[in-house]
Amino acid sequence: MIIAVDGPAASGKGTIARALARHYGLPHLDTGLLYRAVGVAVMRAGGDPADPAQALAVCDFPAEMLADPALRSEEAGRAASIVSVHEAVRDALFARQRAFARQPGGAVLDGRDIGTVIAPDADAKLFVTASPAARAARRHAELQAGGGTRSLEAVLGDIYARDARDSNRAAAPLVQADDADLLDTTELGITAAVQRAIALVEARRTSGRG
Ligand SMILES: Nc1ncnc2c1ncn2[C@@H]1O[C@H](COP(=O)(O)OP(=O)(O)O)[C@@H](O)[C@H]1O
Ligand SMILES: Nc1ccn([C@@H]2O[C@H](COP(=O)(O)OP(=O)(O)O)[C@@H](O)[C@H]2O)c(=O)n1
């Protein structure tokens, strides 16, 4: 079974994707990490993430780079959303994601374009969202726990900027697939959100698509 989980920054899609992977015993890929790796590699080389040629040149990074803690920073997320605008970068990262989705037994992938581009044939698709204020509060708490000092207002500004860049780009914009189930987690805690996600996947499975 292939499960696609998409949604905007800090909506809780990674938390839900990991929980679904555990529940169904499936491997999980956080595809945002691939774009983060490219963004970080460009910055480390002293380059400009907005330059498509420079970003494309570092797309063939080793798999071990995905474990680098530097990929989790806000700067990495920002750089990721800049390199991910380039169609050549998306094309370069496509085969890796597609192969992961198509492995025997299935997989759970989370990102922005899993249900629309990477695995349009997924058995279950969730579009996870939450209000910008809820997402900013979550990301802010996460950053504070890691010792960060960015204000809630600044984090909210980052969220709006990332939403705009991800939703307005020409190549694989952030959009809910026609056949995806919407899961708004604004009023749900993690346990309730995961339960709802499992119920939605189960409904798809038993309706014959899975
Ligand atoms: N339903 C929820 N309620 C409260 N906090 C949540 C919820 N889902 C996720 N979180 C927390 O919000 C932060 C962002 O979640 P994450 O799953 O990493 O989001 P995303 O993958 O969409 O960026 C994490 O600290 C996570 O523990
Ligand atoms: N499948 C994907 C995954 C991420 N991305 C890009 O990579 C950036 C970082 O993604 P992420 O999922 O790691 O970020 P968060 O939602 O966790 O903050 C996003 O803002 C997108 O621009 C993408 O374009 N397509």
From TrEMBL:
Enzymatic reactions: CMP + ATP = CDP + ADP; dCMP + ATP = dCDP + ADP
Enzyme Commission numbers on file: 2.7.4.25
Principal place of residence: cytoplasm
Domain of life: Bacteria
Protein known as: Cytidylate kinase
Locations listed in the record: Cytoplasm
Cytoplasm is among the record's keywords: yes
GO molecular function, one term: dCMP kinase activity
Binding of ATP, residues: 7-15
Organism (species): Tardibacter chloracetimidivorans
InterPro entries in UniProt: Cytidylate_kin, Cytidylate_kinase_dom, P-loop_NTPase
Signal peptide, first to last residue: none
Top enzyme category: transferase
GO biological process terms, semicolon-separated: pyrimidine nucleotide metabolic process
Keywords from the named record: ATP-binding, Cytoplasm, Kinase, Nucleotide-binding, Transferase
Gene3D superfamilies for the chain: P-loop containing nucleotide triphosphate hydrolases (3.40.50.300)
Segments forming domain Cytidylate kinase: 3-202
Family named by the database record: Belongs to the cytidylate kinase family. Type 1 subfamily.
HAMAP family attached to this UniProt entry: Cytidyl_kinase_type1
